[in-house]
Amino acid sequence: MTQRDQARLLLHNGNMLVAKTQFENAPVEEALSMLEQAKQLATELDDEQLIADALNDIGFAHYVASNNRRVSLTVEVPDEPGYDLSGSVLIGASVRLYR
Predict the structure, then answer these.
(1) Which are the contacts of 9, defined by CB distance < 8 A and separation ≥ 6?
(2) Are 60 and 38 in contact (CB under 8 A)?
(3) Residue 87 DSSP code
(4) Is the sign of the CA dihedral 25, 80, 75, 71 positive or negative?
(5) Up-side HSE of residue 80: CA atoms within 13 Å toward CB?
(6) How far apart are CA 62 and CA 70, in angstroms?
(7) Number of structural domains, the chain?
(8) Among 8, 29, 85, 97, which has the highest number of CB atoms less than 10 A from its own CB?
(9) Ramachandran angles phi, psi of 33, nearest 5°
């Protein structure tokens, strides 16, 4: 596997972990670590597209983590009949916010 392929693989894996952060409120640190490794490899390869992709993905990871913290700190999930709390509390809270 070439270094370029390794960088792409790190980007894809990092993005999957960002999605996990976004939808399951998982910690973002592992995703950021992978994305930073991809950026380092892209910089060593002097591949402008890979560098841009890595920076974009790192920015999005920070956005998702920040958004999750803000929502989880400010949302109260009502304990009323008709609300299914068996799933993700943040998803239930988001539904409540946008009604």
Answers:
(1) 1
(2) no
(3) S
(4) positive
(5) 7
(6) 12
(7) 1
(8) 8
(9) -60, -45
Residue 93 tokens, joined: 């809270």
Element holding 4 (H helix, E strand): helix 3-24
Q: Are 61 and 83 in contact (CB under 8 A)?
A: no
Alpha carbons 94 and 92: distance in angstroms, whole number: 5
**Residue carrying the six token digits 């993700």:** 88
Region 21-46: what's the mean pLDDT?
94
Q: Residue 35: how many CB atoms within 10 A of its CB?
A: 28
- Name the residue range of residue 67's domain: 3-97
- Is the whole-model pTM more than 0.85? no
Q: Can you give the three-state secondary structure of 22-88, one letter per residue?
A: HHHCCCCHHHHHHHHHHHHHHHHHCCHHHHHHHHHHHHHHHHHHHHHHHHHHHCCCCCCCCCCCCCC
